[in-house]
Amino acid sequence: MIQVAVMGYGTIGSGVVEVLETNKDKITEKTGKEIAVKYILDLREFPGDPHEAQIVHDFEIIEKDEDVEIVVEAMGGVNPAYKFAKACLLAGKHVVTSNKALVAAHGTELLAIAREKNLNFLFEASVGGGIPLLRPLTQSLAGEKIEEISGILNGTTNYILTKMAREGQTFEEALKKAQELGYAERNPEADVEGYDTCRKITILTSLATGKEVNYEDVPTEGITKITDTDFKYAAKLGTSIKLFGTSRMEGNKASVYVCPMMIGPDHPLFAVNDVYNAVMVRGNTLGTVMFYGSGAGKLPTASAVVSDIVEIAGHMEDNIPTGWTNEKQPVAPMGEVTFSYFLRLAGKSADKLADVRAAFGEAETIELPEMDEFAVITGEMTEARFRKLAAAFEEDIRQTIRYTK
Amino acid sequence: MIQVAVMGYGTIGSGVVEVLETNKDKITEKTGKEIAVKYILDLREFPGDPHEAQIVHDFEIIEKDEDVEIVVEAMGGVNPAYKFAKACLLAGKHVVTSNKALVAAHGTELLAIAREKNLNFLFEASVGGGIPLLRPLTQSLAGEKIEEISGILNGTTNYILTKMAREGQTFEEALKKAQELGYAERNPEADVEGYDTCRKITILTSLATGKEVNYEDVPTEGITKITDTDFKYAAKLGTSIKLFGTSRMEGNKASVYVCPMMIGPDHPLFAVNDVYNAVMVRGNTLGTVMFYGSGAGKLPTASAVVSDIVEIAGHMEDNIPTGWTNEKQPVAPMGEVTFSYFLRLAGKSADKLADVRAAFGEAETIELPEMDEFAVITGEMTEARFRKLAAAFEEDIRQTIRYTK
């Protein structure tokens, strides 16, 4: 029997307890061992809860109980999750977490402790919820040179953008609807400003390069400036606007960024709508593969946590290599990254197109009826060059969205 | 150093040699060992080939060389692939194959030998080409009760159906185009009759249930009866017609089948076009996830073979459990499986709809201009019940395609 402690009895924590129960037979069959929840750490009381007897309020009970071999951290936030996770590893316990903030901020250190002590620190649920993603990336694609990872990694913003695209809503209207449905927090900053996506693409990049990426170095732009007008052009163009977390890797260089992207219908992420998440991975010999599923939700996320527990059950005495080392992975400045650009400019194209083309080269033009503006899609150029060229049109430019087919 | 032999120097075999070379540094970094190709078995000579020196014509050289620890079977077909793969395992060598025919026919036995001898028999490339699929299924979803696997598992037929949908081609025209492009064989039977898909869904089902499925028990229907007229209705309905390999599991029961399916726009496999493959997996707590990518192609498939070699490099002394045992998994008769049906009937709906509704219940009706026929979509019923009801309309029914939203 393997005894587990679950820290945090909120959505994910209670989901983990539920999945361990629901799939008990399958798990026992697969691991050859019974997985039992000995403690549930939470500051709150849960009178009448079927697991009331396991609730404890004092972390030290878990830390000091040598029978507890795996600890699930499902508290969220960096503190005290970091302190507790580290203490558990130092006490010789494997740790599983669904907490992207913890992994992005302290993954390197916690993985190093796990390696040194022949333990495991796993976090499949921290990116893409239930989608099997980190394990395929570190194991199935282990021999592959990963050239690009692009993901729709945040369900809240994807829901908002889908609403805007389908129903012509403004950002504010779609956000309000998302809040009503419980998809967005009352303070939606972490989602809509791209911070959540930033943590997730940071984790994916660290796993792909094997080096620590500092999430504070990742240029991050959210979706708050995307408007219903942008989607009118998108509809006419047959394109879609999505919040991307992207990492492009070449040799030892990595460009990592979070921003809204306009994408064409042939892009593998084009049809990923509502609260769904998806990640495409391009490898040098593999070509492009895509993983799709519920990026959040109680049971899917808990299912991913349980998959880590099952994995550890087969490796109680050895460290499963993730390849994420203590080395630092510098992030290329945004100015060096290449994009095409969707631009909306004030005025009539008849008056201004010659100037625009003189600056940006042959650009595709899009006009909507009865608008005092027009849009163009430029060819590819570095962001630095684009900014320089765009400076001359500063007063005319109403919107800039990076574009890829 | 780990010495490898590659059997078969055709598309996949030469791809494996190429990927091992191209990604040598990454593979060495990941495994901590150099992977070297010692022999390439092929009946042909390859004068001037950079690997000419490694070419051998006699299997016994590989079988008897104790330095060869991993053998890649990339010959295709069941014989002599089966004989050679078995001999390699019995000689204490790990075996990796991309050969779905071999795995579907002899996987149970070869896995049992590998288990018994503490070796590995891996076959990630046998289903879905480069898409990481089998490892996520057996490892990431190990604790999950898999309820359904549905896949577009054959690139050739998906290309043909995409051509028919987009360009209004007949089956024969689209097949000819696929043959011209090298996507379809001169004898396309294995693809268009669904046999290839049948092998693949059999393998997926055996991994999901842990029991041997006999591919000869799987009801298999290809795409040769799908017509351009069917796609006219599909266009009007906003649906798509795809060749599905499906396995629905409930308790100890498994319904496994291969057939064309009409699917709605919300189905996760709706937008999978051209030669791409994709597999959706529904788990009891996970919800639905989907894996997408190139289902074939030299380098993507070779990349999956190499991922198995890399996996084995970390398990040279132990058997990685796949969960596929010697037990038999009975396949439910097709008559017990539930579907909705898209039916095309001769005549005018005004004359016949009352009879159709009396038989099948409230059915959605679709009419195209200037046709001497109409179509209906029925509610859900077992196939046995459908056949019984449809018998009364035998002379009128021009087409039957199973339907799911």
From TrEMBL, chains A, B:
<dbReference type="GO" id="GO:0050661">
    <property type="term" value="F:NADP binding"/>
</dbReference>
<keyword id="KW-0521">NADP</keyword>
<dbReference type="Pfam" id="PF00742">
    <property type="entry name" value="Homoserine_dh"/>
</dbReference>
<dbReference type="GO" id="GO:0004412">
    <property type="term" value="F:homoserine dehydrogenase activity"/>
</dbReference>
<keyword id="KW-0915">Sodium</keyword>
<feature type="binding site">
    <location>
        <position position="100"/>
    </location>
    <ligand>
        <name>NADPH</name>
    </ligand>
</feature>
<feature type="domain" description="Homoserine dehydrogenase catalytic">
    <location>
        <begin position="132"/>
        <end position="310"/>
    </location>
</feature>
<feature type="binding site">
    <location>
        <begin position="7"/>
        <end position="14"/>
    </location>
    <ligand>
        <name>NADP(+)</name>
    </ligand>
</feature>
<dbReference type="InterPro" id="IPR036291">
    <property type="entry name" value="NAD(P)-bd_dom_sf"/>
</dbReference>
<dbReference type="GO" id="GO:0009088">
    <property type="term" value="P:threonine biosynthetic process"/>
</dbReference>
<feature type="binding site">
    <location>
        <position position="185"/>
    </location>
    <ligand>
        <name>L-homoserine</name>
    </ligand>
</feature>
<dbReference type="InterPro" id="IPR005106">
    <property type="entry name" value="Asp/hSer_DH_NAD-bd"/>
</dbReference>
<keyword id="KW-0486">Methionine biosynthesis</keyword>
<dbReference type="InterPro" id="IPR019811">
    <property type="entry name" value="HDH_CS"/>
</dbReference>
<protein>
    <recommendedName>
        <fullName>Homoserine dehydrogenase</fullName>
        <ecNumber>1.1.1.3</ecNumber>
    </recommendedName>
</protein>
<dbReference type="GO" id="GO:0009086">
    <property type="term" value="P:methionine biosynthetic process"/>
</dbReference>
<comment type="pathway">
    <text>Amino-acid biosynthesis; L-threonine biosynthesis; L-threonine from L-aspartate: step 3/5.</text>
</comment>
<dbReference type="InterPro" id="IPR016204">
    <property type="entry name" value="HDH"/>
</dbReference>
<keyword id="KW-0791">Threonine biosynthesis</keyword>
<keyword id="KW-0560">Oxidoreductase</keyword>
<feature type="active site" description="Proton donor">
    <location>
        <position position="200"/>
    </location>
</feature>
<feature type="domain" description="Aspartate/homoserine dehydrogenase NAD-binding">
    <location>
        <begin position="8"/>
        <end position="124"/>
    </location>
</feature>
<dbReference type="Pfam" id="PF03447">
    <property type="entry name" value="NAD_binding_3"/>
</dbReference>
<comment type="pathway">
    <text>Amino-acid biosynthesis; L-methionine biosynthesis via de novo pathway; L-homoserine from L-aspartate: step 3/3.</text>
</comment>
<keyword id="KW-0028">Amino-acid biosynthesis</keyword>
<dbReference type="InterPro" id="IPR001342">
    <property type="entry name" value="HDH_cat"/>
</dbReference>
<comment type="similarity">
    <text>Belongs to the homoserine dehydrogenase family.</text>
</comment>
